[in-house]
């Protein structure tokens, strides 16, 4: 046994001397012979190439580091992208006029010196402590200007705008918007005098139409034994008249002085009028007389209009969304009246056709915007001008409808 053991030791020594194996290589071979989850045993090609496993290990480590770095950089890239996108928002909402360097420089110099060319403003002169000289600025203005709240910045912007537009006109350039508004000529502190005058005429026509309707149904047409009108749509037309006069009033105020409060009041009153006009068109065209049915028709539209007004006033004043909503309600009521005029035998249906056609034409001026002619007449002024005769004709149709339905009900009663 001792001889056999010595012979075996000699054989193992010769084998080891014939092919030396390092401990590192043995460790790698042992690791590569472990069972793999994918295919039983791992490849053993590295047994003959000891450096390949180390190279693969380094490559995997490099890839892992690169993936880790890219994952760490992803949030930073997203933040940079959002920051770049947000920086574009003011540029998207800015007008070409207020982005003009000459205009901006003029406003800055005016706020410091209180003058634009030879015209100076008393309320732009401040003392060393930042207070206006000779008291508050609104005490230095004429009475008709005090309620307008023109301050140093607004006056500087206005007169710098006029000066810049004169220069652009000499160069043959077209007018541009400043702070989202076309350049208008002020008259006695009124920003858009023509639009204000036409809004006042529209208000007068609405008042005349509503009063004439009121006199007709309560003093000229017969009343039932309960002293109520036979015309079943008297109440909704009264609400329509009040909302119409309210809308025209705030429209005139807004075009007289454009501030955040007057703008929101103008938009809110217009949305309320359009929403109720659509309700009225549906009730009258489909001859809805039952109170429960009227509530079912009106409630969803009232809820939608109320939500939209609250959204504009307290969340975001989205001009694009508001334009789409108003256009949708306006087109819906025009189509409703047009279809009803085509199927009814109403004696005054031709008035409906004229109002629908005129309303469609006026809506074009709401969409197509162009610079004010001579600084006074723009698309909105033309829209107000078209609405004056349409308002008169519309209330004429309402009076005719009251007479027609009252006579029809009295004939049935007999």
From TrEMBL:
GO CC term, one of those recorded: Golgi membrane
Q: Which InterPro entries match?
A: Per1-like
User: One Pfam family of this protein, by short name?
Assistant: Per1
| Membrane topology classification | Multi-pass membrane protein
Mainly resides where? Golgi
Compositionally biased, Basic and acidic residues: which spans? 1-13
Q: Does the keyword Protein transport apply?
A: no
From the record, give the transmembrane residue ranges: 74-93, 194-218, 230-247, 267-283, 295-315, 321-343, 350-368, 380-398
Please give the biological process terms from Gene Ontology that the record holds: GPI anchor biosynthetic process
Outline the segment boundaries, as ranges, of region: Disordered.
Answer: 1-23, 36-61
Q: Where in the cell is it found?
A: Golgi apparatus membrane
For bias type Low complexity, the affected ranges are: 48-59
Cite the entry's keywords alphabetically: Golgi apparatus, GPI-anchor biosynthesis, Membrane, Transmembrane, Transmembrane helix
Task: Give the molecular function GO annotations.
Answer: hydrolase activity, acting on ester bonds
Similarity section: Belongs to the PGAP3 family.
Write the protein's name: Post-GPI attachment to proteins factor 3
Q: Which organism is it from?
A: Prunus dulcis
């Amino acid at each position: 046994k001792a001889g056999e053991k010595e012979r075996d030791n000699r054989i193992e020594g010769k084998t080891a001397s014939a092919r030396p194996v390092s401990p590192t290589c043995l460790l790698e071979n042992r690791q590569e012979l472990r069972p793999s989850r994918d295919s039983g045993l791992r490849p053993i090609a590295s047994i003959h190439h000891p450096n390949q496993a180390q190279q693969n290990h380094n490559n995997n480590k490099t890839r892992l580091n690169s993936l880790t770095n890219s994952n760490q950089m992803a949030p930073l890239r997203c933040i940079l992208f959002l920051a770049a996108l947000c920086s574009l928002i003011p540029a998207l909402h800015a007008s070409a006029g207020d982005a003009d360097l000459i205009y901006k420089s003029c406003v800055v110099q005016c706020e410091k010196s209180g003058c634009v060319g030879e015209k100076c403003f008393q309320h732009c002169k401040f003392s060393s402590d930042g207070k206006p000289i000779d008291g508050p600025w609104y005490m230095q203005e004429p009475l008709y200007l005090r309620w307008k709240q023109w301050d140093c910045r607004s006056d500087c912007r206005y007169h710098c705008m006029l000066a810049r537009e004169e220069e652009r006109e000499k160069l043959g350039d077209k007018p541009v918007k400043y702070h989202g508004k076309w350049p208008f000529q002020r008259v006695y502190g009124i920003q858009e005098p023509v639009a204000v005058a036409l809004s006042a005429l529209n208000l007068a026509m609405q008042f005349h139409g509503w009063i004439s309707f009121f006199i007709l149904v309560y003093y000229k047409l017969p009343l039932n034994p309960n002293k109520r009108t036979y015309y079943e749509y008297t109440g909704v037309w009264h609400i329509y008249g009040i909302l119409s006069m309210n809308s025209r009033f705030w429209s005139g105020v807004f075009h007289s002085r454009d501030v955040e409060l007057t703008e929101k009041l103008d938009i809110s009153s217009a949305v309320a009028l359009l929403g109720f006009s659509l309700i009225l068109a549906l009730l009258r065209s489909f001859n809805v007389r039952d109170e429960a049915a009227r509530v079912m028709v009106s409630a969803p539209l009232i809820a939608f209009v109320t939500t939209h007004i609250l959204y504009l006033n307290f969340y975001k004043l989205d001009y694009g969304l508001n334009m789409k909503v108003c256009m949708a309600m306006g087109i819906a009521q025009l189509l409703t009246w047009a279809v009803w005029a085509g199927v009814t035998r109403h004696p005054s249906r031709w008035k409906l056709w004229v109002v629908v056609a005129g309303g469609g034409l006026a809506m074009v001026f709401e969409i197509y915007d162009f610079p004010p002619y001579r600084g006074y007449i723009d698309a909105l002024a033309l829209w107000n001008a078209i609405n004056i005769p349409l308002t008169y004709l519309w209330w004429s149709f309402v009076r005719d409808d009251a007479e027609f339905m009252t006579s029809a009900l009295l004939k049935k009663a007999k």
